[in-house]
Amino acid sequence: MSQYRNAILAGERRAPNLIDEQRILDAAYELLLAVGMRRMTMADIARKADVSRATLYRRWRNVREVVATLMTREWTTLAAAELDVTSGTARQRLVGGVVRLVRASRDNRMLRKIVEVDPEFLLPYLLHRRGANTSHQLDLIEQGIRLGIEDGSIRDGDVGVRAEAVLLTAWSFALTGPALAEAPLDALDGQLHDLLERYLAP
Q1: Which CATH superfamily is domain 65-200 in?
Q2: Per-residue pLDDT tens digits for 69-102
Q3: pTM of the shown model
Q4: In 22, 30, 132, 165, which residue has its Cα 20 to 30 A from 44's Cα atom?
C-alpha cells in the first residue's frame, strides 16, 4: 500500500493539475494554527503537503494568497452550515443563521489565531476592499432578505443596502465584540438577534 501511495504522490508531482488542492490547504491550515501566518513559508507548506514548491507557485504567488484561499474555504463551509435552516419564517432563518455564523466565526480556531498573531492580514478586507468571502456572505444575506420580502416577514426596500448593513453589524459583533464588550458573549449574541429582528421586521 505504501508503494502504491508513493507512486501516486510521485505522479502528482509530475502532473500539478492532479494535486489535491484541499490537501495543500489542509497543510496550510495546520501550519497556521501551529506557527501563525508570518512564520509560514511557501517551502513549509510544500513540505507539509508533500508537493514541490513549483507546484505551489503555479497556484499561489505567496503565503497570503494561500491563506486567503483557505479563509474562503473556511467561511464558505461555515456559512453553508449555519445558514442552512428550513424551519420558521425567512426572517427567523436569516437572523438565527447570522447570529450562529457570528458565534461560529468568533470561536473559529483559524480566525482566532489570525486575530491574535497576524491581525494586519484582515485589514485590507476591513478597510480597503471587498474580498470573495464578503461577496459570498452578501449574496447569502440578500437571498434571505428576498425570501423574507416574499413571505412578508421582512419589510420591503433596498435589498443590497440592507444586506450590507446586516453584514457590517455582524462583523462588528464577531471581530470587535470580544475585545470591547464587557457583557458575556452569549448576552451579546442575544442583543445581535434582537437588533436584527427589529431592523428587518415589517
Answers
A1: Tetracycline Repressor, domain 2 (1.10.357.10)
A2: 998 888 888 877 776 666 789 999 999 999 999 9
A3: 0.77
A4: 132
